[in-house]
Amino acid sequence: MSYNIRNARGADGRVDLARIARVIGSFEPDIVALQEVDAHRARSGHIDQAAELATTLGMSAEYTACVVRERECYGLATLTRLPIVEVAHLELPTHVHLRTEPRRALVTRHAWPVPGAMLAMVNTHLSTVAAERPGQVAAIAEALPDLEMVIAGDLNCTIWSRALRPLMPRVRSATKHARTWPARAPLFPIDHILVAGPLEVVEAGSWKRGGARKASDHLPVVAVLEAA
Fold first, then answer.
1. Which one, 155, 187, 205, 207, has least CB within 10 Å?
2. pLDDT tier at 148 (50, 70, 90 boundaries)?
3. HEC states along 13-41?
4. What domains can be seen in the chain, in order of their start residue?
């Protein structure tokens, strides 16, 4: 699953992390990539949202902060039931003159249920500024040699975007035209799960169960993958 949770602020303007947990739990993913996750921020009750969700869902969590203001953080979290072998935090380029939000990719490598195999999970949230996205995608493509890989996140563009071209020779879209934003009446396919290597996509698409239309301004995307 990939899910932009908007710091758990729902369509009614309330911050309610329990609703996000119910959405995730209704699919029961082995790995979930989360974007717009708060840690110790006043607007979301000073809690560590990644840690709280991991405890509620019985998963482990890795977090990377994209924006830090003293103790308050805002960034990406990956929750998983699979063993984590390695974690990397990848800085993505931005244009200094645009003063846009810092961007990162959170890379977790997992022991895959195939002897000797590892799966790289790349969780990212690309810029809302179109001019920044090609460089960010190129940085991800250059840093990741893995044969078996999942790239998941809010990419702020469609699968046909020119910005994604550096990745397309190596990956294929599992979720394709799945519309995710705005959640109440989704029109735009901007959240994606891309896969590389001998992974078979059994089923995939946007996820509307568990109260997903109200819990955030994005719907999650999900994919069931098997080792081919």
1. 187
2. confident
3. CCECHHHHHHHHHHHCCCEEEEEEEEECC
4. 2-227 (3.60.10.10)
In terms of Cα–Cα distance, which of 37, 38, 20 is closest to 29?
A: 20
pTM of structure: 0.96
Residue identified by tokens 């921020």 is 41
Q: What is the pLDDT of residue 207?
A: 98
- Report d(CA 193, CA 215) in Å as an integer: 20
| Residues 169, 188, 48, 18, CA torsion sign | negative
The rounded distance, in Å, linking the Cα atoms of 188 and 183 is: 10
Whole-number pLDDT of residue 96? 75
Sheet holding 172-173, edge to edge: 84-92, 103-111, 118-125, 149-154, 191-196, 172-173
Given a contact cutoff of 8 angstroms between Cβ atoms, the answer to whether 77 and 108 are in contact is no
Q: DSSP class of residue 48?
A: B
